[in-house]
Amino acid sequence: MLFRFVRQLERSDQKKGKSGMSVRLDEIDRKILRELQRDAGQSLDVIAKKVGSSKTPVWNRIRKMRENGVIGQNTMVMDAESLGFEACFFVLIRTSEHEADWQDKFLAALRARPEVMEAHRLAGEIDYILKVRVENARAYDVFYQALISEVRIFNVTALLSMEEIKFSTELPI
């Protein structure tokens, strides 16, 4: 799903799973998670060796963490620039409308736009921030024009990222 609000992983030893029950993560679970974050394509044998366990217990731990919502879907990280998506914009959106109908329409518009890599609802003066990946400034303008034609927005500020200094999908587990 393209639109996702930030979920924070608790730094305690417990996390609420999909079932609402607490999931205990021990040091081996954390080691497994660190390895999966670095490279989810590693074999179970390799992961087991790195975490000091054997294949079957590692597989069982991974299965349990999936069932409890600790581990989500597996994806591949692509290099955007290699694929021609050279422009990254951070789009700050302020709205004067906070009704459920407006929000539903806005969220549907974002979900329908593959250019939107991330979207967050914020506290403070800015209501939403989007991370938008496109080929160039002209492609951003096409995205922008389409978005404002679908949803009434009070104010939009687009910030072009000049250089990506750090990118990671790894949580500090």
From TrEMBL:
GO terms for biological process: regulation of DNA-templated transcription; response to amino acid. Keywords: DNA-binding, Transcription, Transcription regulation. SUPFAM superfamilies: Dimeric alpha+beta barrel (SSF54909), Winged helix' DNA-binding domain (SSF46785). It comes from the Bacteria. Gene3D superfamilies: 3.30.70.920, Winged helix-like DNA-binding domain superfamily/Winged helix DNA-binding domain. GO terms for cellular component: cytosol. One of its GO terms (molecular function) is sequence-specific DNA binding. Residues 25-86 form the HTH asnC-type domain. Coiled coil: none annotated. This is DNA-binding transcriptional activator DecR. It comes from Aliiroseovarius pelagivivens.
